[in-house]
Write a structure and sequence with these properties.
With 116 residues, this protein is an all-alpha fold. The protein has 4 helices and no strands. It comes from Streptomyces coryli.
Length: 116
């Protein structure tokens, strides 16, 4: 992840806290923002592929990438609301995913070796 992610999202969180407070409702709104941004990413992808024949191609890959970045930012902001250390939470999740990937690879290699 970018070294800029956590300082910038921290500033976004501080600005949102100052403007909107930190109620449960506000936390829910920040979580819903992730879904909103994911929907915009899906819309951009549909537009990039021309899946809607009435509209045709309306987006390019850069649009999809931009929307996916918005998803990452929104998720990072929402993560601040549920943990005191969002960076550590994400790093722990990434490490767990890395371990699962390594275990899956090892299992596949053992299966392939057993078949040989």
């Amino acid at each position: 992840m970018s070294d800029a992610l956590w300082p910038i999202t921290g500033r976004i969180v501080a600005a949102l806290d100052a403007a909107n407070g930190t109620s449960e409702h506000e936390q829910a709104m920040r979580l819903l923002k992730v879904s909103e941004e994911a929907g915009e990413a899906a819309t951009a992808y549909i537009g990039m592929t021309g899946q809607n024949p009435r509209k045709g191609i309306t987006h390019v890959p850069a649009d999809v990438a931009d929307e996916l970045c918005d998803v990452i930012i929104a998720a990072s902001v929402a993560l601040h609301a549920v943990t005191g250390d969002p960076r550590a939470a994400l790093e722990a999740k990434l490490f767990a995913a890395q371990l699962r990937l390594a275990a899956d690879r090892k299992g596949q290699e053992q299966t392939e070796h057993a078949r040989a």
